[in-house]
């Protein structure tokens, strides 16, 4: 008997080379049938189309492991409260989505495919709805920017204070909306462990076409108000592990690692921590002085910096996965990887080659899209 996951992948294969048209058809059908829903979406829709397609592909690829994806879907349902999504909205989206896929699949579309997409969508919607219903937090938190500092041509570090308590764990991320780009939310990691004053630090790099990242770096000022969605992510410290730790970062992937280091400075006495930080040029190592002060205060922390594109750099050179490999072996360590999608994927491939069990690897990939 053909599995549901196989049927989904087969049917998606009928339209994958026309996925941009599928997205355009979906939104046209949705907004024509329910014009009031347009207000839930950002003014700029290019990135939103890409996000829809990413969500579809993710569901298709992961539905053969429903237990593994359910926790994520529940979190996603809680997160969607910031859009004021209701169960009725899920039903309206379902009609438009399946109509878009069916229309572009052509004559090869079958009743089996139709039923499979109905079943998988109903499961996703039910799980997300249950996650939202079980959440007692507000749909989002208002937060005031109390400090903003440029740390380079395209990097800013800012601190904000939520007006209501926001509980999170070091290593998690939140979606942020700013007044300069209404209804456009992007995810950023919190760069500190929970503090008594409730403030949160964020590191943002202005991506080439990033509407939100550009505004947060170049336009945000102290006194501005932000909206923060519920914390998500599982790149947190394992309280049961006693293994030493390897952090591998690039760019603003430093943010969640700084949060995890912040937590470790409060109680760690026995675990050796190795921080590998890769950048293209030495000038990209923002916050290096603060990290060096942490290493001076806590002898269990070792920092290795490497550049990939600068001739004459006196320290380590090369892609950061290669540098980590040279410093091994890492037979009994926990790994945390954060940075660009390309850097994270290259590092995960290298860790697999080094026979590091996937159960000892946590990661987050960052993109403004």
UniProtKB/TrEMBL annotation:
<dbReference type="InterPro" id="IPR017938">
    <property type="entry name" value="Riboflavin_synthase-like_b-brl"/>
</dbReference>
<dbReference type="InterPro" id="IPR001433">
    <property type="entry name" value="OxRdtase_FAD/NAD-bd"/>
</dbReference>
<dbReference type="InterPro" id="IPR050415">
    <property type="entry name" value="MRET"/>
</dbReference>
<dbReference type="InterPro" id="IPR039261">
    <property type="entry name" value="FNR_nucleotide-bd"/>
</dbReference>
<keyword id="KW-0408">Iron</keyword>
<keyword id="KW-0520">NAD</keyword>
<dbReference type="Pfam" id="PF00175">
    <property type="entry name" value="NAD_binding_1"/>
</dbReference>
<keyword id="KW-0561">Oxygen transport</keyword>
<keyword id="KW-0479">Metal-binding</keyword>
<dbReference type="InterPro" id="IPR017927">
    <property type="entry name" value="FAD-bd_FR_type"/>
</dbReference>
<keyword id="KW-0001">2Fe-2S</keyword>
<keyword id="KW-0813">Transport</keyword>
<feature type="domain" description="Globin">
    <location>
        <begin position="1"/>
        <end position="133"/>
    </location>
</feature>
<dbReference type="InterPro" id="IPR000971">
    <property type="entry name" value="Globin"/>
</dbReference>
<dbReference type="GO" id="GO:0005344">
    <property type="term" value="F:oxygen carrier activity"/>
</dbReference>
<protein>
    <recommendedName>
        <fullName>nitric oxide dioxygenase</fullName>
        <ecNumber>1.14.12.17</ecNumber>
    </recommendedName>
</protein>
<feature type="domain" description="FAD-binding FR-type">
    <location>
        <begin position="138"/>
        <end position="238"/>
    </location>
</feature>
<comment type="similarity">
    <text>In the C-terminal section; belongs to the flavoprotein pyridine nucleotide cytochrome reductase family.</text>
</comment>
<dbReference type="GO" id="GO:0019825">
    <property type="term" value="F:oxygen binding"/>
</dbReference>
<comment type="similarity">
    <text>Belongs to the globin family.</text>
</comment>
<dbReference type="Pfam" id="PF00042">
    <property type="entry name" value="Globin"/>
</dbReference>
<keyword id="KW-0521">NADP</keyword>
<keyword id="KW-0349">Heme</keyword>
<dbReference type="GO" id="GO:0020037">
    <property type="term" value="F:heme binding"/>
</dbReference>
<dbReference type="InterPro" id="IPR009050">
    <property type="entry name" value="Globin-like_sf"/>
</dbReference>
<dbReference type="InterPro" id="IPR008333">
    <property type="entry name" value="Cbr1-like_FAD-bd_dom"/>
</dbReference>
<dbReference type="GO" id="GO:0008941">
    <property type="term" value="F:nitric oxide dioxygenase NAD(P)H activity"/>
</dbReference>
<dbReference type="InterPro" id="IPR012292">
    <property type="entry name" value="Globin/Proto"/>
</dbReference>
<dbReference type="Pfam" id="PF00970">
    <property type="entry name" value="FAD_binding_6"/>
</dbReference>
<keyword id="KW-0411">Iron-sulfur</keyword>
<dbReference type="GO" id="GO:0051537">
    <property type="term" value="F:2 iron, 2 sulfur cluster binding"/>
</dbReference>
